[in-house]
Amino acid sequence: MKRRNLFKLVGYGGIGLATAVGKTHSLAAIFDPKKSNLPSYDFASIKVDRLGVEKERTYHNAKLYTQNLDDWQKLSMVHIPSGKFIMGASSQEKYSSDRERPVHRVKVKDFFLGEYPITQIQWRKVAKLPQINRELKPNPSHFKGDYRPVESVSWLEVREFCDRLTAHTGKQYRLPTEAEWEYACRGNTHTPFAYGETLTSELADYASTYAYASEPGVAYRKETTKVGSFMPNAFGLYDLHGNVREWCADPWHENYHGAPNNSKTWNKGGNKSWRTLRGGSWANKPSHCRSAHRSGYRESLLNRAIGFRVAMNL
Predict the structure, then answer these.
(1) Contacts of 202 (CB under 8 A, 6+ apart)
(2) pTM of full prediction above 0.85
(3) What is d(CA 173, CA 33) in angstroms, rounded to the nearest whole number?
(4) Residues 259-313: pLDDT tens digits?
(5) Cis before residue 102, ω within 30 degrees of 0?
(6) 74 contacts 27 by C-beta, under 8 angstroms
(7) Rounded CA gap, 65 and 154, in Å?
């Protein structure tokens, strides 16, 4: 699906083209994620100022684990290194809320996270696998396209997807925890967005008519886009600030009082019939696409702005 041998990142703000080093593996290969011989690849990410103008281009390296879904379809998982970060947003961050506080330091173990949100063709492949607990519709999405993210799927259906994928592969696939998601989204940044001080329509699929800082507002797409259409963050992950909001494993908590300082699922307390959503979508203002922004949604409901990506332990 992605350009694995050689791909180009479109230059931002008239810079031109930057070419990343080719990924050094075959998509057909299966690697043991517990081993250190995972293939690595180089890529570029950028930082923008309050005007949305590129001020820095950085180069990074990540390891990739590729899971076969069948002879043609693959699921690419990026290795997220362990580390510590400050979770949440201070009152000085524009449009932040008490839901994102108190800020607290969290220690995260390394894990694997989907390079992209799960696509509609990946959903169909897994929906054909033997049922574990509930039925899955093969084509639930409102916006159709094989390589657009699947949406209009409930948290309960997403759990079924993970259970079927686990049974099929023998590897423990799951939803990321809220702490894992924010850590992976930030990619070692402390700014409102992984790209810096603001967001633009050239960096994400969101309601770009609205401005977060001083960037120009432009008409937005009003629909999902093909995954991987924009530049990755510094961990090599795509579509974290737009396209679809993403289900996390945790029950919904109104704020971070009593939150754990590790990256495990926060199961104590909270509303267990609601689950946490992270990231922005094609329908969200940029203030709702920030790295720290969080909200809750009933686990049984569907929404054309909600999808997910999967995680896997080492």
Answers:
(1) 12, 13, 230
(2) yes
(3) 12
(4) 999 999 999 999 999 999 999 999 999 999 999 999 999 999 999 999 999 999 9
(5) yes
(6) yes
(7) 26
